[in-house]
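Feature request disguised as a bug: please show the residue count (254) next to rRNA adenine N-6-methyltransferase in the output. Example input:
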Amino acid sequence: MPKNTRYPKGTPLWASQNFLTSRAGIRRLIGLADIGSSDHVLEIGPGKGHITRELLPRCGRLTAVELDPRLWAGLRERFAGEDKLELIKGDFLKYPLPKGPYKVFANLPFSGTSAILKKLTRAGRPPRAAWLIVELGAARRFTGTGLASYAIRPYFDVRIAAKIPRTEFHPMPGVDAALLELKCKSVPDLPWELQGEYRTFLERAFRAGPRSLLTKRQISAALRREGLPPLCRDGNMEYVQWLCLFRWWREFYR
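Example output, currently without the count:
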């Protein structure tokens, strides 16, 4: 969805979405994903089924969750008799994630990116991997040096797998997009049960600075103990430095 777009009340959901329609372009993006014949894939917001059509030959089983009843009805008709496909009509944010291993491939509504990523990355059953088409600016936030990136990096390797020009969408949004790749770490940098505590630590530190949680001497000692460089004068910190300070803070204040 383009930034700052407002639609009149009662506008159907499909009218506020941006669809990839080029079959070659969709195949190129799916080709960047590690999806095989034994994988259960979850597609969020399949829309008119352009991506669904290309995912089906690649995966073992596909679950597609569509909120818009008009689009869902069209999908049911288009893919009638397709045994590998389970169509769910409803809100993905209320949908229980699969109990077994699964991967995600989806063209997300730009306005829903944060909420969907929150559900996937903070879930008790996270995906093994996800390839999400999102606004390029959002992709940069999740791969950059800020809170959004550092909060998920203990658990996922994240990168921009491809950039997608806005001209590949219909209707054309006001911004370019990207294919954001997340791969769940087999051995996370922190236990999953500390995820909420770590995020709270980061939120407070980003809001008030790391010295709101640790003294200057404690910060220097923690980084020195781990063989990490001291803080820069501008206060910018790398992911490994934040991780180090969280562990130190938890050791002495928990």
